[in-house]
């Protein structure tokens, strides 16, 4: 990640192109559990819902493009 050092703010050290990593060392065990529950339980559920939706939208876009090509070819 050294290639992004040129974008870092010299005074604060904020690097806008690096992902934020939570500091879990100073939080309670409940907050740690909630964080891991989110990534181990909620993230796969969201991915399972999101993937068919993205595939459906891609298929719909492909069909609209196919219809447009057929209409141009026929007319």
List the defining traits of the structure above.
single chain; mainly alpha; 1 helix
Task: Write up this protein.
The protein has a domain at 46-75. The longest helix is centred in the last third of the chain and has 46 residues, at 29-74. By secondary structure, the protein is mainly alpha-helical. The protein has one helix at 29-74. The model has no long low-confidence stretch (mean pLDDT 83). It is 61% helix and 0% strand. It is built from one helix and no strands. The chain starts with 28 loop residues before the first helix and ends with a helix.
Number of strands: 0
Strand content: under 5%
State the share of residues found in helices, binned by percent: 55-70%
Low-confidence stretches: none
**What's the number of helices?**
1
CA-based shape:
flat
Q: How are the SSEs ordered, and which strands pair?
A:
Elements: H1 29-74
Question: Outline of this structure?
Answer:
The protein is mainly α. 61% of the residues lie in helices and 0% in strands.
């Amino acid at each position: 990640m050294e290639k992004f050092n040129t974008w870092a703010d010299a005074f604060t050290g904020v690097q806008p192109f690096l992902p934020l990593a939570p500091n879990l060392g100073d939080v309670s065990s409940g907050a740690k559990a909630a964080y891991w529950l989110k990534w181990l339980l909620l993230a796969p559920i969201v991915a399972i819902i999101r993937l068919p939706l993205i595939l459906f939208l891609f298929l719909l876009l492909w069909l609209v493009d196919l219809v447009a090509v057929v209409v141009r070819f026929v007319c």
